[in-house]
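Blinded run. Sample ID left blank on purpose so nobody reads anything into the name before looking at the predicted structure. Input follows.
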Amino acid sequence: MVKKITKRLPVPHFLKHRRTSKKPGQAPGTLHFTGEKRLENITMHLYDYDVEQLGEYDITEIEESKPYLESPSKTWINVCGLHDVERLKHIWNYFELHPLIQEDIINTNQRAKIEQYPEHMFFVLRMMSFKEDTGDLNVGQVSIVLSKNSVLSFQEDDFPIFDPVLHRLRNNAPRLRKEDPDYLAYALIDTIVDHYFKVMEKFGDEIEALEDKILEGFDDDIPQHIHALRRKLIYFRKALWPLRDNLNTLLREESHLVNEENKIYFRDVYDHVVQIIDGVENYRDMILGMLDMYMSQVSNKMNEVMKVLTIIATIFIPLTFVAGIYGMNFEYMPELSVPWAYPAVWGFMIIATLGMIYYFRKRKWL
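Blinded prediction complete.
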């Protein structure tokens, strides 16, 4: 018997289990990069702005940011690349970041979190967006450090996820230019969450395509597609639930870095996250329903096959009975000497077959 081999769908890189070589029992704040090297070199982009002006600079050393950090304007430094721990450590020490913040930035398996420190507020989110050229899902970790007069953001790669915020800065958005850095941190988080809606639309398209594929007919690859989509939704849900809880905590607690009048914007982000989570739950129910639909389709197909085989077997039961009788080796069988006995037996078998077919069709079994 030849065993059918079904081609297995490739697992997206962000769903693969990442193993870390960090040894148990190491001191808190031990630096160990757990991600993948996505850029050749770390890059830093500095944006210095206020109501009157916006300056954009590519810097190679963090000390170049000193004049901007000491000015009354607001400063945003976006760092792309997390593989060069020594260079990142130089940046962190310059801003006097807590060792736990440093550890979490390069631990790319972090769940979404919001933590308050004496001089900083630390945000970790999962960045998810689709590449326009390939349509692949780009997933990475984004860390944001909010200070009194500046914002630091760290990305695994140079994917332009923050382009909408830059566009608003360049077009002299009054609130973004006027408000304190906490509003910029909100804008960055809101941009990441807005990309989640696009991911949800993509999931919706995949679910519709799978439903059409199931309704069109039987396909051996459908269970794998359902399982792959289910894994993506589980991963997506794991990125959203902690963010919802942490945003809710941020809204309820007082903070010296987030102005009370700006918390309403973080509440809007919280509402968006809740809305997306509701959509994920609906999609998960739809996927379970599709799996049940597929299994029902397989079961119905099996029932149809069994029905046809049963009807064929039922038709041949009387024919087999007659053939069995005249296949016995008795010496005295009177009808064997009658000339019309052979065509009479054939006629009986044909009439019996046609009669059963007519009966099955009348009962709508055929």
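Unblinding after everyone has recorded impressions. The CA atoms of residues 28 and 100 lie 7 Å apart.
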